[in-house]
Design brief:
heterodimer, A: Rossmann fold, ten-stranded mixed beta sheet, three-stranded antiparallel beta sheet, 14 helices, B: 13 helices
C-alpha cells in the first residue's frame, strides 16, 4: 500500500461495503497525513454569535457542499437538560444554518448508546425548541436502515459492523460531540462520537459488542471506515471527572473544528491538558501521533491561550499533560 | 390501533418509524398489541407470515432480515406463542433463548476475570445479552424471562425454571442504588448510576410472582417516577411492571404521546393489561 495510507485505501475501495435494504456506496475521502487545518474559536457562552462563528469556520475550511447531503451527528446521551452531557442545540442549529447557507441539504441524526427514546431525549435537551421542524429533520440512527460494512484490517476484534445507512450514504458526516472526559477511553470527542452511527437496533442499548471487541480499536475502525466527515466540537461547556455521563461541568469556552477528526481530537486533548500521545484510539487510528500533532495547522485561538485543565478520574491520571 | 394498522409495511412487517423498513422487534410488539385487541385478522396473518420468513435456521430471529445473526428480538417474537407462530417455530425460538447467556459467563471470560481479580465478574447468575458474544443486560434478560415464563408450566425439563431463577438473580444483582434498574450498569468506576423508567418497568414485569425487599423498593421507585415519566415507552413499561405486582396507582393517566410504532404497541399492551388482558403474562396451555 505504498503511497496510500490505510484510511485512503479502505475508503477509496469499493469493496468492503455491503448495503442492506436501501442505499448506496460512497466515494473516497482525501485525508492524507498532510497539513491539517484545525479551527479553535473562543466562545464563552451559548449565544447568537455562534451563528457567525460557524459561518466563518466553514469559510476557513473552504467547505464546498452545494447540493450535497450533510448529516449533523450531535452527541445525545441522557435526559438531563441542565447537565453538559449533550451537544448544545444552539451549536447544532448554528451548524445547520451555516451548511444550509452554503447550499447543502442538511439533516440531523444520532443513535444514543444507553437510552432508546432518542426523540424524547432530544426534546428534553432543547432541540425541539431551538431547531424549527426538528422532528422532520431528524433520523434516529439506531432505527435507520442498516449497512453491513466489512472491516478489511480491523484494529478491533470485529470483522464487520452494522452501521446506520444515513451515516454511510451522506456526502458529509459532521461529528458534533461534547468535549468530555471518558471513564473507559480518557476523552470522548469527534472520533468516539462515531459510535452513534452503529445500529442500536441491531446491537442493543448499550452497543456492548463494541466493548467486547475493544473500544479503542472500534473507534479507530470507524474512523477508518466512515466516509467523508468534518468535526465541530462543543467545548463551550464540557464535562470533566467521571465523564461521559456523571462528570461535572467544565467551561472551556471553545468550539474546535476541522476536516480530520483525529487532528481535531488531538487539538481538543491539548486544550483539555490531556496528552494525545496517550490516547489509545488515536495511536491505533493514525499510528504516528507525533506526525499527526506536527501536521496540525492551528487557526484562530492558539491552544495555549484556551488551555483548560480537565480533571480526570485517578485511573486516568497518567494521560494528563503537565 | 389505527396508527399501528396504517404503519404496517406492504411486506407484512412493521417498521420502528412509519415508512421505514420492517424490523422484527416492532413487528412482534405490533402483533402482540393487535392480538390483545382481538378481531384484527388479516394484518395479523400478514405480520405472522413476515415473522415466519424472518426466522433463521438456528431458531432465533435477526433484528432485521438483512442481519446475519439472531439476537434478543427472538424473545419478543417467541412471546407470540405456539398457537400463532406454529409449534415448531416456537419450540426452536425457545431453544435458541435457552442457549444464550452473557459472554461474561463463558469459560474463557471467567478464567480471565479470575486471573485479573475482577470481583465484578460472574456471580453464577446467567442473564441474556442483546447480541451474542456480549454481556448480559437488563432488558434482554427481562424479555427472555418473559418469553420463558410463558412456556414454563409445560416445560418437560428443569432447564427453563432454572434459567428463570438465574435470570431473576441476575436482575436482582443489578439493581441500582436508587432502587430501580438502568441498562445494567448499576455502578461504573466506583460511581452509582441512576435508574431508568423503561428498564425498571420491564424488570418488574419479568419478576412477577417474586417478592423481596429489593422488588418492593423498585415498585416504590416506579410509582414515584410514573407521573413524571418523559417517554411513552417508559410509561408503558412502568404501568406493566407495577400492575404485575399489584402496585399500579389508579390516578395516573398516560400522558406521553407514542413516537414510534413500538411505543404505540406498548401503550396498547399496557392499556389491555390494565383492562385485564396482559399478553406478557398469559401462559401457554399445556397439551393434555
Amino acid at each position: 500500500m505504498s503511497g496510500l495510507n490505510r484510511r485512503e485505501f479502505l475508503t477509496g475501495s469499493t469493496a468492503g461495503l455491503a448495503l442492506a435494504g436501501c442505499g448506496r456506496g460512497r466515494g473516497p475521502q482525501a485525508a492524507a497525513r498532510r497539513e491539517q487545518l484545525v479551527s479553535v474559536v473562543r466562545r464563552p457562552d451559548y449565544t447568537q454569535e455562534l451563528y457567525g462563528d460557524l459561518r466563518r469556520i466553514l469559510a476557513e475550511h473552504r467547505m464546498s457542499v452545494r447540493g450535497k447531503r450533510v448529516l449533523l451527528k450531535p452527541n445525545l446521551v441522557e435526559f438531563e437538560p441542565d447537565s453538559p452531557i449533550n451537544t448544545h442545540p444552539l451549536l447544532v442549529h448554528a451548524a445547520l444554518e451555516a451548511f444550509r447557507e452554503l447550499g447543502a441539504e442538511v439533516r440531523i441524526g444520532e443513535g444514543p448508546g444507553h437510552r432508546r427514546n432518542t426523540l424524547d431525549m432530544a426534546e428534553a435537551a432543547g432541540y425541539f425548541e431551538t431547531i424549527p421542524g426538528f422532528e422532520d429533520l431528524f433520523t434516529d440512527l439506531n432505527l435507520d436502515c442498516v449497512a453491513e460494512v466489512r472491516l478489511a484490517r480491523p484494529h478491533s476484534r470485529l470483522k464487520s459492523i452494522y452501521l446506520a445507512q444515513s451515516a454511510m450514504s451522506c456526502d458529509l458526516l459532521v461529528s458534533m460531540p461534547k468535549m468530555k472526559t471518558h471513564h473507559w477511553v480518557g476523552a470522548t470527542l469527534s472520533m468516539k462520537n462515531l459510535f452513534g452511527t452503529v445500529s442500536g437496533g441491531v446491537y442493543g442499548w448499550p452497543k456492548n459488542i463494541l466493548h467486547w471487541a475493544g473500544i479503542p480499536g472500534c473507534i479507530a475502525d470507524l474512523y477508518n471506515t466512515l466516509p467523508s466527515y468534518f468535526a465541530i466540537v462543543d467545548g463551550i461547556v464540557g464535562m470533566e471527572g467521571n465523564g461521559p455521563i456523571q462528570g461535572t461541568p467544565k467551561r472551556a469556552g471553545v468550539v474546535v473544528a476541522g476536516r480530520d477528526l483525529a487532528a481535531v481530537d488531538a487539538s481538543c486533548c491539548q486544550i483539555m491538558s490531556i496528552d494525545p500521545h496517550r490516547i489509545e484510539y488515536l495511536k491505533l487510528a493514525v499510528g504516528d501521533v507525533d506526525g499527526l500533532v506536527r501536521s496540525i495547522h492551528q487557526i484562530g485561538e492558539p491552544v495555549e491561550s484556551v488551555r483548560t485543565r480537565f480533571e480526570l478520574l485517578p485511573e486516568w491520571a497518567g494521560i494528563q499533560q503537565s | 390501533m389505527v396508527s399501528l394498522l396504517v404503519s404496517q409495511n406492504l411486506d407484512g412487517g412493521w417498521p420502528y418509524q412509519r415508512g421505514g423498513p420492517s424490523w422484527t422487534e416492532p413487528t412482534a410488539y405490533a402483533l402482540l398489541a393487535l392480538i390483545a385487541q382481538g378481531s384484527v385478522v388479516e394484518p395479523v396473518a400478514r405480520g405472522l407470515a413476515w415473522l415466519h420468513t424472518a426466522q433463521r435456521s438456528d431458531g432465533g430471529w435477526p433484528p432485521q432480515p438483512s442481519v446475519r445473526q439472531s439476537a434478543w428480538v427472538t424473545a419478543v417474537a417467541t412471546m407470540l406463542g405456539p398457537a400463532k407462530l406454529g409449534k415448531d417455530a416456537h419450540r426452536r425460538g425457545v431453544a435458541w433463548i435457552v442457549r444464550q447467556t452473557g459472554e461474561e459467563t463463558s469459560f474463557l471470560s471467567r478464567v480471565q476475570q479470575f486471573l485479573t481479580g475482577n470481583a465484578e465478574g460472574y456471580h453464577g447468575c446467567d442473564g441474556w445479552p442483546w447480541f451474542p458474544e456480549s454481556s448480559a443486560w437488563v432488558t434482554p434478560s427481562a424479555l427472555s424471562m418473559l418469553a420463558l415464563r410463558k412456556v414454563a408450566p409445560c416445560a418437560d425439563s428443569a432447564q427453563i425454571p432454572a434459567r428463570l431463577d438465574k435470570g431473576a438473580s441476575y436482575l436482582l444483582q443489578h439493581v441500582c442504588s436508587d432502587g430501580g434498574w438502568n441498562h445494567g450498569g448499576a455502578r461504573a468506576m466506583g460511581y452509582d448510576a441512576r435508574s431508568y423508567p423503561e428498564t425498571t418497568g420491564v424488570a418488574l414485569l419479568a419478576l412477577r410472582g417474586r417478592d423481596s425487599p429489593a422488588i418492593r423498593r423498585a415498585c416504590g421507585w416506579a410509582q414515584a417516577r410514573l407521573p413524571a415519566c418523559r417517554t411513552s415507552e417508559g410509561e408503558s413499561w412502568l404501568r406493566l411492571g407495577l400492575l404485575a405486582h399489584g402496585q399500579l396507582p389508579s390516578n395516573v393517566p398516560p400522558a406521553r404521546p407514542p413516537r414510534t410504532v413500538q411505543d404505540a404497541a406498548l401503550a396498547l399492551l399496557a392499556w389491555a393489561a390494565v383492562e385485564g388482558r396482559n399478553l406478557f403474562l398469559e401462559q401457554q396451555e399445556c397439551p393434555v
